[in-house]
Amino acid sequence: MKHLRNVLLVALLLLAAFSLWAQKAIPEPKSKVKLDWWYQDWSGGINWIKEYVPVFEKKHPNVAINVIPISFNDLYAKFIPSIAQGNEADILFGYDEWVVGKDVSKLFTPLTPTLMTKEEFKQYIYTPPLKNVTAKDGNIYGVPAITGANAFGFAYHKDLFQAAGLDAGKIKSWDDLKAASKKLSVYNADGTIKRSGVLFTYTEAANALLDMIQMQGARDKVFNKQANTWNFNIPEAKKALETFKWFVDNKTFDPQSGDYATSFPNKIGAMLLIGPWNVGTAMSQSPELTVGFILMPPFPTVKDKLVLGSVVSYATYFASKRLKGDKLNGALLLLKEIMTNPAEYADIPFYKKPPYWVGAICLKKYIDELAKRPADKMNEFAQTALTATQKGLPAINTLETRISEPILIRDVIHPEMMNVFLGKKSVDEALSYMTDYLTKQEKQLAQ
Amino acid sequence: MPTEALPLLKKRRKPLNSFILLVALIVLVYYTLVGIWPFLYNIWLTFRKTDLLTEDKWIGLSNYSYMFTDPMFWNSLLHNAYYLGVMVLVGIVTSLIFAALIYRTKGIARKIYTAMFFAPVVTSMVAVSLVWMLLYFPKIGMFAQIISALFGVSRDKLVFLQGTGSALLCIIIMDIWRDTGIRTVIFLSGMDEIPDSLYETARIDGATQLRQFFKITIPLLTPQLVFIAAVYSINAIRVYVPIYMMTGSPPGGPANSTRVLTLHMYLSAFYGQRFGYGATISMVMFVILFGLVILEIRAFQQKWEY
By Cβ atoms counted within 10 A, which residue in A262, A447, B251, B268 is the most buried? Predict the structure, then answer.
């Protein structure tokens, strides 16, 4: 018995030693390799990654990274077709919802077990973001790094808050938000809105609508995966949409105030419902601005029930399946560095220098580090990342639809919300249209 | 003499024929690769549910039946029809007016006016769209300020691209402005071909300038009018760049009020990753464009007699 125990102990030690060896098994490229990295072109993100690349290249002198910025629309449009044609970049930036329901083993290089085992992978990355990048065989094909453009909270102009005598830290509920938006709104002599207290101009409003429905516990009512049906003709959806409409009816949101990218930095709106990335974008496009971030409060009448990411959105890094030899090793080294030395990567926007970033991060080790970090090595952005990750990631509750995010959010829900804001449709009409259109498409996709 | 020349001719023809064959073959291969094959592949795609990589399934006529009950498809088609109507009608009328005015000028003035109107034609549509997008910025943009100052209209009402009723019209106005030069030049060349004697005779008969314009100029410009109507009808069905560039994210907004067929096709295929459905929309566009091209060819084959 004792002998057997010793044998098992030795076997376990050997296994542990093997796993450590396996982790260190990615060799440095023997000759210089240049890797193309398609990266979403948004100012904050590109600035960040261009800061990080030299840090990585210094540690791995045989690997040169060429960051190629591509706009969201173009990147999404060419993501799958380029892989089908075999002309995708060596390393790809993408959102995991782009590969929902797809066999990822046909798209990218597997990262397990080459990089590390599945179990080790989960020590570095939170489990929820791994869902869509895990193939049926259990292998993992991507490194989710940060949360993308979901309805996360509100970017706000600090000076406008200060001038209105408002403290952003005290906004804990939608009632607080409504009161603040009223106080921040400025009107022309004829009573029209000169500056909106809040802007819902971007598609995060549609994400937030779904989140709000879920916050009220209506997840199974709004989407039935088995029957492939959507149903927005429910009181919870009506209440959520009417919450947004309140801001239009009470003249604290002007839905015709123009593109958020222009209107928010130009202070045509004091707050902006947006994903975590807009703070970085606003700061890099207009460095003179001081922008803060308020986490999204729980839905009215619902106590402490935060739901984020009804439509999941994790910014994820993938390695092309065409990579071989030194190039493959170079790409794997980059992904491994981000996972295992996350502070070098994530501290750039969260702590080191503007344009800052706020929001949840998928890199477990970084959050562990932040949790232990002394106060003098933290700032409000690092603190938000910590809070957002600890509160936000467990709250992720993705609706498992077959409809892609750009269609669901940008093509259907957001335009219908705009129809309500602009008075073209009633709340009931818009909800009924969403129900019919999405059900029809869901059923066709399920064929 | 003929008996001697014949073998010589035969000898010369041989390499010429093989050269022609080679050139024809290259063209045929090229056309097959970039024209016929994609077209046939597109037809094949319309019967499939595919993302081109991980899923490929035969679904029969499902894409077609979906399309004919898709409200966004009909909405997009309606927007194309509106685009076509306004673009062709207003585009022709404005260009005719400008051509008639420039026709009356002579020498350097005429050249300056022609160049002035032609300049936007050679400017990139992307650049033009971005500049006009800024001009159209709601309430505080340049157009809003000018219109408000001149006509006293409340700036709050001047939402341009942010209004569901005004956005598409704003894009059409930009498109009309951009191509006014080329239409004007075509009409001018047509006017130059009209014999002066016709106008002189009309003047002797006491016809006013307006009457001359409607009774002589317009009828004699029929080939140009038909050409422009046909070409711009095709352009109106294919329109994509200005709408994609000027309506931001999501394109086709606000509230899908500027969504046209090309955009619906693109978004369905590339955003929705429903390449089969996208191919189906493109087939409808093909049928419409094919009809317009046939009309154009017939119009050109017609011999105009006055």
Answer: B268
